[in-house]
Write a structure and sequence with these properties.
89 strands, 14-stranded antiparallel β-sheet, 1202 residues, mainly beta
Amino acid sequence: MADMTIVGLLLIVVGVTVDHPAMAQRDESESIELDLREGQVYGWSDYITVLTGPSYGSRAECDSQAVVRVDFSGPYKSARFVLQYNDQPRLWTFDVSDSPAADGYGGDPGLTSNMAETQIFNKQMRVYSNNLPGYMDATIDGDLLIRIEDDIIDRNSRLSLEISDERLEWNRIGSKKKGYINSQFLYTLSGQSPMYGEVDYYIYAGFNRVPAGTFRSGSGLCKASVILLKAKDVDECMEGTHDCHPNATCSNTPKSFRCQCRQGYVGNGRHCEDEDECAVNNGGCVHECTNTQGNYRCDCYDGFMLHDDGHNCIDVDECAVNRGGCQQICLNNMGSYECRCSADFVLSDNGHTCISNKGNCKKQEHGCAHICQETNRGTICQCRPGFELAPNRKDCIVTCSHGNGGCQHECQDTDNGPVCTCHLNYLLASDGKTCIETCAVNNGGCDRQCKDTQSGVRCSCPDGFTLQPDGKKCLDVDECRIGNGGCDHDCRNTVGSFTCSCHKGYKLLTNERTCIDIDECSINGTCDHTCENTPGSFWCYCNQGYQAYGITHCGDIDECSINNGGCHHTCKNHLGYYECSCRAGYKLHPNKKDCIEAEMCIPLKAPAKAVLTCNKVGDKETCGLTCKTSAHFSSESEDTYTYSCGSDTEYEWTHEKVNATMPSCSEHVNAPSLKRKAQFKFSADKCRLRRRHRERFQDNFSRALSKQRRYPCTELCQVNYVNLRCGNRPTRTKRAKKRRGRRRKGRRREVEGQSGSVIVAEFELQMNPEEPTDKCDVNCVRRRTEKKLRRTVNTLRKSINREQFFVRFAGTDYEVMRRSLKADRGVESICTLGQIMVGDKCISCSVGSYFNMESGRCEKCPSGTYQDEEGQLTCQPCPSEGSRSATGIVGARNVTECGGQCSPGHFSWDGFVPCIPCELGTFQPDPGRTSCFSCGGGVGTISDGATSFEHCIVRESCSAGQYYNVQGGQCHRCPHGFYQPRAGQNFCVRCPGNTTTDFDGSTNENECKDRTCGGEIGDFMGYIQSPNYPGNYPSNVECTWHIVPPKGRRILVVVPEIYLPAKDDCGDVLVMRKGASPYSVTTYETCQTYDRPIAFTSRSRKLWIQFKSNGANSQKGFQVPYVTYDENYQDLIEDIVRDGRLYASDHHQEILKDKKLVQALFEVIAQPRNYFKYSSAESTAMFPRSFIKLLRSKVTRFFRPF
């Protein structure tokens, strides 16, 4: 029996339907049943295929998953799904769609436009439309959502869903929760043509998961039945075999029919009676209501006509047509009209014509309001029909029988005349006659918002709509048409609103308009070494000696794997660098690659403008270095340098033993400039050291110095800087006060300022030297410069002490305080740029060198550059030769020395010109070498001077990803962990760091991948990461992580995005469950790419997570963060992550992808009371208002339930 169960499960997994032993006979009902607790399938049908059979579940809760396909191309045109929930429904427990790619959010990734989707998510049912033209008019969110039904299911409930062409019907069995939707934007099961994709007759249903995969799953659905309803072979309504009443409609149903009384009739459909609509609220008619068979009719009194709404009555303007029959003047009234006459005429008894005013009545002396009747008894007054004679026997009072008493709706006669009232939901206007329509009547005719006012209803539109000229209808405003809606990047119009979105690499600010660049470099760990942020992206750079892999990582370059690092003998790799070494009897050449005889001194070369005198005694050679006449060493103050080389120095020159370079000589020598610091004080009204005042003060002070009578500061003298600060006022003696009172008349002073604040001016005075001459050498010039600087300072001190020195500050001249000048005793010597101080002289950097601004020293020009002038700050690049960059000696003094090194394919005894080409059978790829490499194996070259192994004549030409084995005389594929991007090479390059390749024969460094499983596992926060992330993960890798939170805490996981191969038959899988057993409780599982984030809580207290890849394809993978939280907040966390609004908005999705915001969100999740720390201005600057509103309602409800 066990063997049969295993075989049965295998058949189910591959899509083959099986029978339950107890149901071997085909059931005429054409149905199957899925037991999602035990993992069993019962029943069979040609038109139902189990694509993914239910596995043996945990049995602790209903969490087994299955996917079935239903075929509507046969006789069955509808399917009923009966869902039984014995456990609490959690996440996606049911999802049925036209497409196998349904992922739980509506829409389809390009397979078909004819895709509708219905899902059960927690306790909620959501219905999504397809993408056929016009679908947005049927939705409620401007996207795909058609309907939401809350609390459609619960624990221990049953739900029936019936799906047919363009129809969905639901019924929670045993309750009143039922309904249906008919829409062309629902399931297309009759061969409707799609906008894209193929025509098919299938629907796909996922149980405890979505059809697209297990990445969105749920639990709680324990049993499910799929029942195919047979074709409607008998249509009683069409054949007339029904017993519906003549005043009822007949609707055909499977195996039966349904009768329903037509509008205007009541009954059970088989017996229908006319409904007297006038019996209730007069049928809504404001005047007269007449009941008819199956309907009713509203009529108006004379003088009124029926409004377009069929219920209200409005006044008829009789005067508008032929003056209402009046001979002279017609006056319209509510419900009637009145004829009048001009002067000298009176209205006749017929009420229309006018007659001459003669006789008692005609002279109107009687005072009758309407009709004057002359009788034998005298003159009497009468009224026209609809009026009553007033008690004064002359005036006429209107009654309700005439024009409805002037009332628009209802009229009631009283002693004081008619009183007007209005029908239900109307208001009486200020004239006491007219009735104003209110918003209670058909929303006042308004399309959206209606407001009752004294003058009637006023229609308005919500934001995002504009009121049309009819004052009733609202039209959606396409905000994107005007200025792109204010969006920085993309604008998408929605019904009544719009949304902005940003390009990749940017994020939307909380104003939901502005896009700013995401500074990826501000996130720790973005790059292993150096990160450079760029608009919309970033670049990672590696330190020298390292190579990039996996986009953001850096690994050590094994230079020794690249042609032995160019080393003549032995190469040894280190982290970030390598070094060459030589065999016994040899030593390393200065080029650090070649090996030369150990007992050999390399001849010295004299630097620029220097003389080298050498002599040799035995095996010891001694050289003396001096500068030519009128030249000086540009590094030290010595006159002569001595170097030696021999057996006692291990055949290295003494300066080479200490890694020192030989000094060079320069002819440009000058005396240094001298600087001296000093300060003085002056009084001002207030010590307000504004920036513009400080900047102008230095210029004013310099001008004041230049006006001194003796030793003014001009030409070679300059003020380097002046710093101002507020100081303390000294105590003045009586003698000083008396002296200040004896000032000469006419002297400029700011007397008022003397009682104000004290300002201290600190400055630096510099005296530059003159050029040396035959009569005054450098030493003479220095002495003169010192004297000038000293006397300039002394002259300033005397002027101040004599109260003769004034400075201008903030537009006012102030006298410098007497005896306030304090000067430093020390004098500082400086040289101009391009010179260095040697002793007490300034010597320019020699030719072949430049002045390094950072080190403040003269340094030799690097290889490939030269400098033929003294005292320069940079070196000139050597001219290149064709496509090859120029090389040359270090410290080249002219263009000629640029070619000092031997070029590739050449060598010499010291690596410098003159050079000879490499012999046949040898090659040299590097410049400045003393030998050439052999092709090996007796292999020759096409010609001498070969620069690469490619020029060696071998038996076969190796392509990229291969190397040539000289001993075997054939090409071999590069092994694992190596690659070769070029053809015709005799080596392969080792992958950087600890990376390796998936296969042998790799052709570039991008195939080098780190197989280390990434992530950090912590008690409260952490993350897991696919190997080599964000680069493509390696093949055939397996990673396992264990998350075991502290006692009393649960796990929340956020998957921002995950990239796995789409066409890989689920060869690469990420699964999260309680333990390693495949039967343990599963929280999450996926094998596909999804760029929409999702958050979920673990279904178990601990998580065993595994990622496995096969050898077929590769993708970017994932980085999945998690947080643990106090289990006392379980209900709150579940409420947040299960709310569909968390994922519905693009803005909310971006939050779950933003590492910084997820970090802040995790703080709230880990400790929900932290929410109040972010709920003020700080959180507003971080999160959209809608997100804060979503959290606020849930957190507040949790902590303040009452």
